[in-house]
């Protein structure tokens, strides 16, 4: 029996009960100290405006975990504490 995440692959490396886990494609490993135990599905929040809070005058940059909003050239960031959410000329 193994403790790999359901979205991970389990590979036997030696007997008895020795194996490695690794998150499958499309998933990110959330605990590098225990690989393949906590796998989170990768989501591109930038493809859907309901999944991000970027201003319409900002570029949404997808990251492995989450996203980043950056005001477009020529626009000023009115709320540096929440970058790219309130961009004005």
From TrEMBL:
<dbReference type="GO" id="GO:0005509">
    <property type="term" value="F:calcium ion binding"/>
</dbReference>
<dbReference type="InterPro" id="IPR000152">
    <property type="entry name" value="EGF-type_Asp/Asn_hydroxyl_site"/>
</dbReference>
<dbReference type="InterPro" id="IPR049883">
    <property type="entry name" value="NOTCH1_EGF-like"/>
</dbReference>
<protein>
    <recommendedName>
        <fullName>EGF-like domain-containing protein</fullName>
    </recommendedName>
</protein>
<dbReference type="Pfam" id="PF07645">
    <property type="entry name" value="EGF_CA"/>
</dbReference>
<dbReference type="InterPro" id="IPR000742">
    <property type="entry name" value="EGF"/>
</dbReference>
<keyword id="KW-1015">Disulfide bond</keyword>
<feature type="domain" description="EGF-like">
    <location>
        <begin position="42"/>
        <end position="81"/>
    </location>
</feature>
<dbReference type="InterPro" id="IPR001881">
    <property type="entry name" value="EGF-like_Ca-bd_dom"/>
</dbReference>
<keyword id="KW-0245">EGF-like domain</keyword>
